[in-house]
TrEMBL record, chains A, B, C, D:
It is found in: Cytoplasm; Nucleus. One of its GO terms (cellular component) is cytoplasm. The keyword Isomerase does not apply. Pfam families: Translin. GO terms for biological process: RNA metabolic process. This is Translin. It comes from Stephania cephalantha. Belongs to the translin family. Keywords: Cytoplasm, DNA-binding, Nucleus, RNA-binding. It comes from the Eukaryota. InterPro entries: Translin, Translin_C, Translin_fam, Translin_N, Translin_sf. GO terms for molecular function: RNA binding; sequence-specific DNA binding; single-stranded DNA binding.
Length: 240, 240, 240, 240
């Protein structure tokens, strides 16, 4: 291969080398950026894990204000982490979506927990602009992707049947009605969207099982006359 | 569920609805954008298919200028298509990477063909800046992603063993030496890059099989004294 | 190849042969050791199968003392088998983890059964040091790997929903409350651990389904006023 | 679930918590150890990549002493890395095989390169004890697993056919005979071993293809009378 090797010293070869030296630098640069992003994403994951542990206590009927206080501390931690993420990405304008995959799963989980906490406190849906505000995100610079928000809301919905079951167990018979009203509205709102065959669509398709389970629990308390409203037609009513 | 439904008319519910109306618009907008991008990507795919058909004729030892003329016509078509793609994406600054997945496979194929044609004409590697120029891409607005370029070059490498085999069949015994020199340099250049465990790394790992196959063909012509250099001592030599 | 073969008689070749004779001995030795370990592991598997058969009778509401007596007989068998395993491994110090894969699955199953039996008898979690004691394991020589213990506990958790369902069927309405209290504590304890993305993490992730199932059963007995506490207001209450 | 939650404050529950706090520490400890091991393994991988790049130049018929000098520099780097690995593992005696999977692939690659270099320099097989010496490994503390050594040797064998082909191409017609003699002995030595159905057996099974390819190249040079020994019976001989 001696003669083949000879051409290695040609100018075209050194031009090739020069080009790849440039690539090396650029790949190192984007690799380092990705490492920094992943480090922050790992901290977001860690913070959401703690927040989740706090929120799980509502299933053991711990008072919401107590649970909320501990969970909200993590929102402040998350706010700081998203500020760091935004700072990293502002270094390279227009590359938000290039690295989006490196933090989106963690963000969807964060949204689901913050929205669940918000529902516990207000019985309302946490809106997109409200999450951005809570996390200190600025849409013009580093915003919250709408699909990530919607997927997070679907994850929150998955938590509701369990909450209803545990609330009824501890004697809160009005909870199913409230959750059902909320979930019915939420499901109807999602139905307005013309979702494509993607991950969000699949997650939304799962929401109907949450809805059905809550309907069943509501049915159980109504049929037994346990629901607090006077207009019940359950067991108690028939015996009255 | 009558009482549950009642709460739908509450203000919180209408606020939810209003938010989802906004999402509907935004999802429609990004969905339409994606449809337009995919339509252009389909045309790019169609054009590269035609270009590939032209280039395949080199395996039947048709003269390169004839093959090149027909293939180059497609480069002009591609240039027009990338202009359309750039125009669509310039409507939404900073979203290049959001939709990148919708045209990157087609682009990698286009790069591989244009680079193969360029090698046939010049025996040199088509550089990243040269492809951008040929396709009328402007890095500051809508450029060619480096990884897409590099993956395209790996695909081009996959075409070379077949070309060498067919050239030797038609009596071009100097082709293996030239391709081997080029591929050896290219492989060494790629090795400079510190590739991560991703798609590009996997494609590059395949390049060594191209290199070995070309080495084997070069071996075949050398050992038979068919290589055009004077120093051969193979079959021809023994018969002299 | 005659001349090639000639060099086989060189000194380098006989040195190569000598080395491989050493390898042959060492591979035979470790192969034999592995065979002996696997033979004991097969007996452990056989003993846990018998123990499992005994324990399954609790799902048919056979009295726990009767079930326990027969299951405990197998713990003695297991103790003897682990002594044999320890003796084999003490022949080659520092190779515990070399052959660990050959008995760990069987050990995890054994842990799950012994811990389930212990829970039936005491309503407490069998601790790591207690299992070691029961099986005659000495941590300084041949101990129980912590991950194997934890995986075994996850397997035990998988058995609890079925137990609760069958107990309620036979009229033991207090069982869900007790299992739920235990499983809630266990789940919270596992959450303290910062589990990596490995097999143990995956098994633990499954524990939440056990927890939910038990919550559902507890819900069922509570809403029907079947739970033994006086504050129920379910079906029984309305009929009172 | 209030009553269920009550038991959380029981002594059994706090004992459970205490046990898991111990696990948390031990899992953190082994997790940190694994991170440190993986960091060194990544550096070993990086060093072998550089060494491989150097060694690849022999396929372009660069003189062996020049190639060797650059490759040997990496052996010193590797020696330092294995010292670090040994130091980490000596902290926890008897856990070599617990973390073995975290560095074995990198080690097998290192062995294959060092053994190939050694063959280029001496035409002999690098023995197990010689590699340990080169890498500063001490069998009594942190040695080289025999299977890793043997797998590395199989990988080295995979490199030989390509080397032979490229050497013949550049006119070194004696190379096939020498490689064939070596590979024949090596293959025969491996055949002595009673390999089980595992990874090593699979790798060894692949060695016969290397042997066949080298036999074919040797046949090619012999039949064409290109082999340097006088006893050839190829093309030249028949025409003499």
């Amino acid at each position: 291969m001696a003669d083949a090797g000879d051409s290695s010293s040609s100018s075209s070869s050194s031009s090739m080398e020069k080009q790849f030296e440039g690539f090396l630098q650029q790949l190192e640069q984007s690799g380092n950026l990705r490492d920094r992003i992943r480090a922050v994403a790992a901290e977001i994951e860690s913070s959401t894990r703690l927040m989740h542990s706090c929120l799980l206590l509502v299933h053991q009927s711990r008072p919401i204000p107590e649970v909320a206080a501990r969970a909200e501390a993590q929102i402040d931690v998350l706010k700081g982490l998203y500020r760091r993420l935004a700072e990293i990405l502002l270094e390279l304008p227009g590359q938000y979506y290039r690295y989006h995959g490196d933090w989106r799963t963690e963000t969807q989980t964060a949204i689901s927990l913050i929205a669940f906490l918000h529902w516990l406190q207000t019985e309302n849906l946490l809106e997109h602009s409200e999450v951005e505000q809570k996390l200190g995100l600025d849409s013009s610079e580093f915003g919250l992707d709408i699909e990530d928000y919607l997927i997070g809301i679907c994850f929150m919905s998955n938590e509701l049947p369990r909450y209803v079951v545990n609330q009824v167990t501890t004697g809160d018979y009005d909870c199913p009605r409230k959750v059902l009203a909320f979930l019915t509205d939420l499901h109807a709102s999602f139905r307005m969207l013309n979702l494509r065959n993607d991950f969000l669509r699949k997650k939304f398709d799962g929401m109907k099982y949450d809805l059905r389970r809550v309907e069943e629990v509501y049915y159980d308390v109504k049929i037994r006359g346990l629901a607090p409203t006077g207009d019940s037609t359950g067991d108690q009513g028939t015996q009255a």
